[in-house]
């Protein structure tokens, strides 16, 4: 009786926390998608190892025993496909990938259900701006990724905007300098045309003066000859 009084029964003891539900080993959505992606990649790899490419590496057997070479090629591709699939399955088992990805599916599903329930109930805390504050662990991976990446992208965008603004200012100054140089060139060309016109006028005047000077010399010579005849 004393032992029964001093020792509480099992029913009076606090029960231990319930065990976590076992993680299903049946491939879930993410495991299925991973297997599909791997199968597609393997199929593309095998297609790249076509018989034409394989035969190009062995031209002599391809010419003399093409059937045998094609049989070797088929066996090689089959062995490669079998080995690749076996290694992939071994990696899934070693890394416990099926259980881990199924657990991720479960967590994401719970987070989405919790978020939808909070949105439906209209509850949740509000932040300083009056918006609803959502716990980070309830967000899906893509939103968490954007939340971490957005500040860095905004900072990079601000730096790039500053560089673009500086470049635009430099381009504007360069355009103004080019326009000023173009105006100066046009002014110099106009002055050069004036100088050329003056030189051409001077050359014409010099030519005319030279003709008149020759006529004067001829007239003076004729006067001297007339004077010499009259004196005789």
Name its key features.
single chain, 232 residues, mainly alpha, 2 domains, elongated, cell cycle, nucleus, mitosis
Structure summarized in a few sentences:
Keywords: Cell cycle, Cell division, Centromere, Chromosome, Coiled coil, Kinetochore, Mitosis, Nucleus. The protein has seven helices and no strands.
Kindly describe this structure.
Its main location: nucleus. Residues 164-232 form a coiled coil. It holds the Pfam family Nnf1. Keywords: Cell cycle, Cell division, Centromere, Chromosome, Coiled coil, Kinetochore, Mitosis, Nucleus. The longest helix is centred in the C-terminal third of the chain and has 91 residues, at 141-231. 79% of the residues lie in helices and 0% in strands. With 232 residues, the chain is an all-alpha fold. The protein has 7 helices and no strands. It has 2 domains: 29-139, no CATH class; 155-232. Helix 2 packs antiparallel against helix 5 (66-94).
């Amino acid at each position: 009786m004393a032992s029964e009084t001093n020792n509480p029964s099992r029913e009076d003891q606090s029960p231990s926390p319930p065990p976590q539900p076992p993680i299903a080993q049946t491939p879930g959505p993410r495991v299925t998608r991973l297997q599909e992606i791997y199968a597609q990649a393997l199929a593309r790899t095998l297609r790249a190892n076509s018989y034409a490419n394989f035969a190009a590496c062995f031209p002599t057997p391809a010419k003399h025993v093409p059937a045998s070479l094609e049989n070797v090629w088929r066996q090689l591709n089959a062995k490669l496909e079998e080995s690749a699939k076996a290694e992939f399955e071994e990696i899934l088992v070693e890394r416990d990938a099926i259980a881990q990805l199924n657990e991720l599916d479960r967590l994401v599903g719970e987070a989405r259900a919790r978020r939808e329930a909070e949105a439906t109930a209209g509850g949740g805390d509000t932040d300083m701006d009056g918006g609803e504050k959502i716990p980070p662990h309830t967000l899906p991976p893509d939103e968490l990724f954007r939340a971490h990446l957005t500040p860095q992208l905004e900072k990079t965008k601000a730096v790039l905007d500053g560089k673009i603004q500086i470049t635009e200012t430099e381009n504007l100054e360069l355009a103004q300098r080019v326009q000023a140089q173009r105006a100066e060139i046009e002014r110099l060309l106009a002055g050069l045309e004036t100088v050329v016109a003056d030189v051409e006028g001077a050359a014409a005047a010099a030519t005319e003066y030279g003709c008149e000077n020759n006529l004067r010399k001829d007239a003076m010579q004729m006067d001297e000859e007339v004077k010499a005849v009259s004196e005789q």
